[in-house]
């Protein structure tokens, strides 16, 4: 499987796909029309490079994903509010008078605050409180922290199971399955068609469900070592450390998306199993929506090598590129014939010129042969030596730079063209030079 780097999420009757700084939302309207909206997103990490450091980039990615997710959900929901807008209640009219044109934004903000408070209460405070009650009869603090984590995971699984029974959520989970299947189709090397997508898996290692499950698992490890007997401080530490735990979990998800080792597959299994609840088999209409979203931000033909980027030349995969191969062979033969003719004519011209020059210069060569050899030997040795030393020094510097950068890249801590990587490399180079002078 070849990682594509694209990700997405299911929205109301649609799919959002994101590729680097661009994302697209495809929604099927009530009249069966598919609407696609493209937009760009500039991450804070582009202005402030510190946010590209490990852990910090995970915290930022989590926050930015939340922002994009809310925005895309609002966009998809707007197509289904038109029917309800005609039946405006007295409460809606009162809100419109008080907040005027900002009613929708304010209601969404209030809804998000309530949702976050409830999530903190159910998945953070409640498990800590229940484990605290059990802790009175358990001597080991580490065991209490472990039980707290198990309670948290159990509550999360029950919550996912409960909402998966709702009719509207079932359709969202079906679009979630369409999103995963579409990405898997590309990364497995298949053309992006409804037929090919239909046969793909609904699970994916970079899924947000796996990320949330991993957050809860990592929190168990954190809180087994971070302990306090002060009740309010115990609750506060659970809440304040959520961004850090999310950052650590992001690093694993990022690593898992780029590697397919046995250890990664084993550690990803629990999250993949949980995706069996958060994804459902989509119908062909849903797959079509997901494909439209992908094609708006990602050229899968170039990714699969079906088309040369920027040329528009398409390779026929069914014929194994036989026509293209034949054309290339013919071009090579024509090129060889031309080059052979050019070589023969150039040789003839060179022979004629060489014969006339050789007669004139024969006597001069004999007279100056001994003196030129002596002078050349004297002058050539120091020049060759200095050039060789300069070349060797340059080669050593390039090799050292390459070795330093390759070490940092293999650690998978920095992006390839990251300015932080270059800064670290420059610092190491200066340090090595100073040590050499000493």
UniProtKB/TrEMBL annotation:
It holds the Pfam family DUF1385. Residues 333-357 have a biased composition (Polar residues). Residues 366-377 have a biased composition (Low complexity). Residues 326-403 are annotated as: Disordered. InterPro entries: DUF1385. Keywords: Membrane, Transmembrane, Transmembrane helix. The keyword Glycoprotein does not apply. The chain crosses the membrane at residues 106-131, 143-164, 207-226. This is Uncharacterized conserved protein YqhQ.
């Amino acid at each position: 499987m070849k990682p594509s780097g694209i990700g997405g999420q299911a929205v109301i009757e649609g799919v959002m796909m994101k590729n680097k700084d661009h994302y697209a939302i495809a929604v099927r309207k009530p009249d069966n029309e598919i609407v696609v909206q493209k937009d760009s997103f500039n991450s804070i990490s582009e202005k402030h490079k510190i946010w590209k450091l490990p852990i910090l980039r995970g915290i930022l990615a989590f926050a930015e994903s939340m922002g994009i997710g809310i925005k895309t959900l609002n966009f998809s929901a707007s197509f289904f509010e038109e029917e309800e807008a005609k039946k405006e209640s007295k409460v809606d009219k009162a809100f419109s008078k008080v907040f005027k044109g900002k009613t929708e934004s304010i209601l969404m903000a209030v809804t998000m605050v309530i949702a976050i408070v409830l999530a903190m209460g159910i998945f953070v405070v409640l498990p800590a409180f229940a484990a605290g009650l059990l802790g009175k009869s358990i001597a080991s603090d580490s065991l209490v922290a472990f039980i707290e984590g198990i309670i948290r995971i159990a509550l999360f699984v029950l919550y996912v199971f409960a909402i998966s029974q709702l009719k509207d959520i079932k359709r969202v989970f079906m679009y979630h399955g369409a999103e995963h299947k579409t990405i898997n189709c590309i990364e497995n090397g298949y053309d992006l068609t409804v037929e090919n997508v239909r046969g793909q898996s609904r699970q994916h290692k970079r899924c947000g469900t796996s990320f949330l499950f991993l957050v809860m698992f990592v929190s168990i490890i954190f809180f087994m070592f971070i302990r306090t007997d002060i009740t309010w401080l115990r609750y506060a530490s659970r809440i304040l450390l959520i961004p850090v735990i999310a950052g650590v979990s992001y690093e694993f998800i990022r690593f898992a998306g780029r590697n397919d080792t046995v250890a990664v597959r084993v550690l990803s299994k629990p999250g993949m199993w949980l995706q069996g609840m958060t994804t459902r088999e989509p119908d062909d209409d849903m797959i079509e929506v997901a494909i439209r979203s992908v094609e708006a931000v990602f050229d899968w033909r170039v990714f699969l090598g079906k088309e040369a980027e920027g040329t528009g030349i398409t390779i026929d995969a069914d014929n194994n590129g036989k026509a293209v191969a034949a054309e290339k062979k013919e071009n090579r033969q024509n090129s060889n014939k031309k080059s052979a003719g050019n070589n023969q004519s150039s040789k003839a011209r060179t022979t004629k010129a060489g014969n006339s020059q050789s007669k004139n210069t024969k006597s001069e060569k004999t007279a100056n042969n001994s003196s030129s050899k002596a002078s050349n030997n004297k002058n050539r040795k120091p020049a060759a030596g200095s050039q060789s030393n300069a070349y060797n020094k340059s080669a050593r510097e390039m090799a050292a730079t390459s070795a330093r950068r390759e070490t940092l890249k293999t650690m998978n801590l920095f992006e390839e063209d990251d300015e932080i990587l270059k800064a670290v490399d420059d610092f190491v180079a200066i340090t090595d030079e100073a040590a050499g002078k000493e």
